[in-house]
Design brief:
single chain; mainly alpha
């Protein structure tokens, strides 16, 4: 992730040098060297991204496999009454669905969150290095947007809960007490 972030941050700086220095000076050798460096960085970034995706996929598969082993072991350790009350197909389908969501979380969401955080941090460092005023404007803007996102997260959670409850209500309709509770929540 560090390599990919470094490549993302270096490419605009190379382009700036080509546009601001090499082209006005009509220095073809410098422009060609910088263009070659830019293409090399593209290749390095793509290779690093491929390696990151592969490693995260392997890590996610291992974590999910371990969770599934433990969960299936726990389910198989239940008594007969548990299997009389719960349909085996539904248990397996739910376990597989949850495992796939966990795999997505471990392989895509977490990696993207970390990579984005590193890129934002690197961008702020570059901005401060170039011009402290622009850096301060960027940090202030991020703080305002971040605060708003945190405040809106509570509203989002409430909407997700209402939606989840709405999806559960039809399944609980057979159970009068559960239906009354679900109706009160919705």
């Amino acid at each position: 992730m560090v390599v990919v972030t470094g490549v993302h941050l270096a490419r605009p700086m190379i382009l700036r040098t080509i546009i601001d220095s090499a082209i006005p000076q009509k220095n073809i050798e410098m422009a060609a060297w910088l263009a070659g460096t830019f293409i090399l960085l593209l290749l390095v970034g793509a290779s690093a991204m491929y390696i990151r995706v592969r490693l995260m996929a392997i890590l996610g598969a291992e974590v999910v496999a371990e969770i599934k082993r433990k969960l299936f072991g726990h389910i198989l350790g239940q008594g007969m009454r548990f299997f009389d009350l719960n349909q085996t197909g539904k248990l397996i389908a739910r376990t597989e669905s949850d495992a796939n969501q966990l795999k997505s979380l471990f392989t895509q969401s977490t990696a993207q969150l970390l990579a984005s955080g590193m890129l934002i941090t690197g961008t702020i460092i570059v901005l401060f290095r170039e011009d402290q005023t622009i850096g301060m404007i960027a940090v202030t803007s991020m703080l305002i947007v971040g605060t708003e996102l945190i405040l809106q997260a509570g509203t989002y959670r409430e909407l997700v809960l209402i939606q989840a409850t709405g999806n559960i209500i039809p399944e609980l309709a057979n159970n009068k007490a559960a239906a009354e509770i679900a109706g009160a929540v919705a």
